[in-house]
Write the structure tokens for this entry.
Amino acid sequence: MIICSCANINDRKVKNALSSGARTLSDVQAELGVAMGCGSCRDAVQDEISKFYGSAGNTPRAYNGDLAPTA
């Protein structure tokens, strides 16, 4: 699926950039040139980043036993 029409970038290229170490929209922009023209793909790129890394609020935290859990 085409993510960025201006740069002709598809979702596979975005995922490859993320697999190669890109972590932010700025990283993906620098590597692929997405969201540099009209900007209409910005949300789609952000969605791909969120899907790839997961949202911070959904990342489970390991309990190491040092502190008692609070209710």
About this structure: The domain at 2-55 is CATH 1.10.10.1100 (Arc Repressor Mutant, subunit A). The longest strand covers residues 2-4.
